[in-house]
Amino acid sequence: MIDTRSGSQPRECKVSDSRSMLNLLQGPLPKNLSDIRASVCCVAKLYRFSDERNVWQWQRLQTYAGSYAYTEDLDAAKRAVEKQRLQGSRWWIHEMPSIVIRGGDFCFLIATKNSLTPFLEFRGDSFRSPLMRTIVPKAMALGYVFVIEPYLNLAEYPFLSFASYVRRGKRELGWVSHSKKRDLTYLHRLLEKLQNAMQSD
To answer: Which of 89, 98, 176, 183 is in the most buried spot, having the most CB atoms within 10 Å?
Structure first.
């Protein structure tokens, strides 16, 4: 079990297989979802890219392309940015906390839309057995659910952000990392709830 006590950090699982792809779950849900018993529940790291452009004088607008802005690794995010960037735009890549739930042949990755207080949307929610039947529809309503290859390994804190810059004489953008403060309270609370429900499956 992942330790989620105060002052500790849960271990992370990162989707690191270069062959894996994020497939957005849009429904219908698998018919046997109630029969699937969750066997793995851990924190994962996704990468979300967004662009920032001047809209009026010194005001800048930051946008991202919904579920299509999520990638499974940093290199994939950089490649996606290179394909979409325009002159004068600045890009960000954020390491986003997410949760992996695996059961049977299914592996779901739940992504939050909130980058500063991830999984705030799930506060107050409770989950019961069967876990897959209760968490997956809820997550589809509040965030994004991806179906991924069930290959995971450990990653590490912290969750970073990367800002783009133009490199003189180079075609590709350069990137500089920033340590962006995030409130992971709701992430840890949700993880603990899910793991308690998983024990009852």
So the answer is: 98
